[in-house]
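Local shape tokens:
==================
===
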Amino acid sequence: MGFVANGNNTPSQIEIKSDPFYPIILLDHIREIVRIDSAVTNERLKQAIIEEVLDINRLLVSLKAKASVLSELSTTQINDQPETDFLYLSAVANGVAAKVNENYRNYDSSNSGAKRADQAEGTVDDYRRNKQWAIQHLLGENHTVVELI
């Protein structure tokens, strides 16, 4: 379950800049990727993006010892962009999608709202999984860890 755009959004031109090692995140790009409509204000979305950027940067801090910018760690390009930039954006977008879907499903407390919330749980988990996979890919780790007992 995502927020399907049903209203017009005025382009915000808001950029989320963090450590120069990481790519800049555009609020409007996240809004398009995750299909978040105008029910989520720019300020609320900006806050969610900043929280995710902080979390992801914390998880990827070990990469800073390997290069001066994240894109230097890329082994391939897609549409003339380093794969690492796409993976970073994917991690942020999926984290924001999980956060927004989890927070905004609480507003409809009717029976149909409760049913949709149950259905959204799988989606929230999917977003979290996709975020984790993007982070693991950036770290050069496998998606699944299996240990023999």
